[in-house]
Specification:
single chain, 415 residues, alpha/beta, Rossmann fold, six-stranded parallel beta sheet, 17 helices, 39% helix, elongated
């Protein structure tokens, strides 16, 4: 433990207090604080940087939300290790929004987990059917780092389609929260694929409100859209004009949006335009933790992919190992994966999606519950997520009933 870090314990728990004092010695505050109000008073009267170990059901008059807000107000840089009775999706979202990342559910509290949280900046430890699910019930909980995942690729390859599949699949199989941001100014279509008929100008409205100096949490509350059937899945739509994105938008906006969204959700997925000549593309690719490059298994798409990949890695210095290839629209006459891999000079192929003859029918008519067969194991492994049991292929049921498509297209064309 570093000498300049001081520990406060506010648990009313003699066993844990003794364990922490035995481990960290003089770095630990003398007393185990017994009430929320006393914690706030101590933090407000000291200028030191603390790590505080506390719990949401500590005695006191403050409710759980106000307790967190008062601690952050009294000492903004304090690291909070927070033990909660039960961690719902909404509760976790609130804690992340207030920069509380070290969370342990009471039923999962062990000295090992507590020690782990002491040495990590972000460590959510819980095991709950409602929160972490793999193959209907995970055998052991996963502690997953936050990720900013960029979806890029050739024109017409199906980036938005794959983005929607990936977002829905992760929330369903892994049980973590995901935000899907539509940053494709050329052809925004996340709203169409996911049956969203409100806030079509999400990105431009967010940036306008940022210019008016509004607080980012307030802005996100207003413009992030929750999926109708999945409370862990959230969207930011986009119908910005190319003029705005070329002449008004800048990396400073993207940085604030990405950072704020990243605080709220476990994974942030960015659907990008195909052209590399918009600032949002290099900025996002350089700051992404993972990149999925979508292409089609034909010579035209691959020739374009080779040019883009060379630009990404040689001009922008994006590490090649960060890039995973997704082959979309695979059919019987397509190039084989080994041919694709050879042509693109050995990039890792993380997954393939079989061409569905009914895809145009889905986009152009009210067809419900469109399935897509995709092997998620390799994709999850590329993200550092444990595979599903067995080498199964999962049927993706994330596409919802289409409605108001004509209105959406008319709005898009108007801009």
């Amino acid at each position: 433990m570093k000498d300049d870090i001081n520990i406060i314990i506010a648990l009313n728990n003699e066993y844990i207090t003794n364990h922490i004092k035995e481990t960290y010695g003089d770095s630990v505050y003398e007393y185990d604080i017994s009430s929320k109000e006393d914690v706030i008073e101590i933090l407000s009267k000291n200028v030191k940087q603390y790590t505080i170990i506390t719990k949401d059901n500590l005695e006191g008059q403050l409710d759980t939300h106000m307790y967190i807000k008062q601690m952050k107000l009294a000492s903004p840089n304090t690291k909070i290790i927070y033990i909660v009775e039960e961690l719902s999706a909404e509760y976790k979202q609130f804690l992340f929004a207030n920069e509380v990342f070290n969370i342990i559910e009471a039923k999962e509290l062990t000295m090992e987990n507590l020690d782990e949280s002491m040495h990590q900046d972000k460590s959510v430890i819980y095991k709950s059917k409602n929160e972490v699910v793999t193959n209907n019930e995970m055998k052991e909980s996963q502690v997953l780092p936050k990720k900013l995942i960029a979806i890029y690729g050739t024109s017409g390859a199906g980036k938005s389609y794959f983005s929607s599949i990936l977002a829905e699949s992760i929330t369903r199989d892994i049980g973590i929260s995901v935000a899907l941001l539509d940053m494709d100014v050329q052809n925004p279509s996340v709203d169409i694929y996911n049956n969203i008929s409100i806030n079509l100008n999400g990105l431009s409205s967010i940036i306008d409100e940022m210019d008016s100096k509004k607080e980012m949490n307030e802005i996100l509350d207003k413009y992030m859209i929750c999926d109708k059937n999945n409370k862990k899945l959230w969207y930011m739509t986009n119908n910005s004009s190319i003029f705005d994105i070329q002449n008004k938008y800048s990396n400073s906006y993207y940085e604030r949006i990405y950072n704020s969204v990243n605080l709220r959700y476990d994974y942030t997925i960015i659907d990008l335009p195909s052209t590399p000549f918009l600032d949002v593309v290099p900025y996002t690719l350089l700051n992404a933790t993972d990149i999925f490059f979508v292409l089609n298994p034909n010579y035209i798409s691959i020739r374009q992919a080779i040019k883009y990949l060379e630009l990404i890695t040689k001009l922008w210095d994006v590490p090649k190992e960060k890039i995973n290839i997704i082959i979309n629209k695979k059919q019987k006459n397509s190039l084989e994966n080994i041919q694709v891999k050879s042509l693109i000079n050995g990039y890792r192929i993380a997954g393939e999606i079989i061409q569905n003859d009914n895809m145009d029918v889905y986009i152009n008519s009210p067809l419900y519950n469109k399935n897509c067969i995709i092997n998620q194991n390799k994709i999850y492994e590329s993200l550092g997520i444990k595979s599903l049991d067995g080498n199964q292929k999962s049927s993706f049921n994330g596409m919802k009933m289409y409605h108001m498509l004509k209105k959406k297209i008319e709005v898009n064309n108007a801009n």
